[in-house]
Design goal:
Length: about 220
Amino acid sequence: MASGIARDLRRPGAAPASAARRAGGRQRHTHHHVAPDFGRIARPAARLVCMTSVPVTLCFLLRESPGNGPEVLLGFKKTGFGTGKIVGLGGHVEAGETDAEAACREVLEEAGVVVLEQDLLDAGSVEFVFPARPEWDMSTRLFTTRRWQGEPGESAEIVPAWFSVDALPLDRMWEDASHWLPDALGGAKIDVVIVLNDDNETVLHVRNYLGLGPENRGTQ
């Protein structure tokens, strides 16, 4: 799942908030681009497989590191579902939030970094299907960004760390990550369904995969 969000329920009645509204005067990491309107983008076909799936988001910060090439910000999960694993930054979409708003809020809560909605790139989606526990089914919207404010810091839930995109710690992540994360970080737009075994952790099979090149990112 590349995250520890499957069963980490948010505070009941928590008011949705966009991290974009909390942007301060901190230094920005900048790569200019024209961002799509995520409020109007239709979800890919894979997201429609389970109509009762819980909507969640993942956001991957990317940077170029001298001597190490492209790096991605992941995190060591300290509490809750997935404790001890390396996961992506993300969580549930609250009532009244867009996927983009949720992604920005989660990055702020988990790593103390401000990402603006217009700086997100749509990396597609992954549908997680749990035949043994259908109430766990998740529709996960993926984003990447190369622009943010602040430096990542430890939170109550996550210890963030940078990893080389060419040497991802897949052996310390959820098993499904190997089926889509390298492609997502490499610029493909993901549309994939992951069906889990009865242990709710290992992958039974992957279906409906569709990868689009970087020139198609941000479009449907």
